[in-house]
Amino acid sequence: MSSRGTFARNGHATTDEYVTVETLESGAKVLEGKNHKHSLPDYSHSPNAVYIKKNPDGTFREIRIYGKDGYPIIEIGYHPESFLNKSNKKDLIWHYILFGPNFDRGLHPSLIDNNIKVKYAKYLKEAGYDQW
Amino acid sequence: MINGDTEQFLDTGWLSEAEIYYKGHIYWCEGGGNKKEGFIFFIKKWAAENINNMYYKNILSSDGDLTDYDESFHLEAKSEEELRQKFLKSPVFDGKTFWEVEKELCWLEPLGNLKI
Q1: pLDDT tens digits along B57-81
Q2: What is the pTM of this model?
Q3: Within 13 Å, how many C-alpha atoms sit on residue B76's CB side?
Q4: Model confidence pLDDT, tens digit, residues A22-49
Q5: B72 in contact with A at a CB cutoff of 8 Å?
Q6: In 3D, which of B116, B110, B5 has the Cα closest to residue B58?
Q7: Interface contact A39-B18, CB threshold 8 A
Q8: Eight-class DSSP state of A75
């Protein structure tokens, strides 16, 4: 059984398995997975990379920002999130989740706050964030 | 697994908002954690239609809500491997475990407004 991140460390679920379909002005790249890859890369070979996943209809789904070591730092998403919107299971909601060492994904998502807005403003603007 | 890589799913995909279809339902798989606080995994399930083994379309009520919605499945563990083993032993797919239905599971994306 593979442990978390084994693929990434072996170079499987990384950017080798994706194609860049668009590069935005900010430098963020819109990726599409090859060979039935759905999630954004676990790990980036390029330091400080920023990758975006869009829905099949072209709308924004999530952006993942990586550190200088190639490990993910944060993922900002725009999709239903029942943790944050308990009364509505299907409406889209802006939120983020942080990563720790060894690909550890945060326990719970959080709503976009001012700190996130300031730090990632250029990416949020390109993604269509409209709750400034 | 159809339209997905089983090994990748069990590596990081299962915790990263993977949308898995099985017999009329989407199973939204998500989790996270760390060694200090522990790890969690949960599944949100609702009725959906499989479109060409690539996309899914939600089956909505007359009020526009998701139907057959269930988010009761929730696991906790001290380590990620313990969590993974708990998941693999759980009969979450209509009473069957992951490995019992693995060949029938289909990793899909939401159809949204895509015209096909």
Answers
A1: 999 999 989 999 999 999 999 999 9
A2: 0.92
A3: 4
A4: 999 999 999 998 888 898 998 888 999 9
A5: no
A6: B110
A7: yes
A8: E
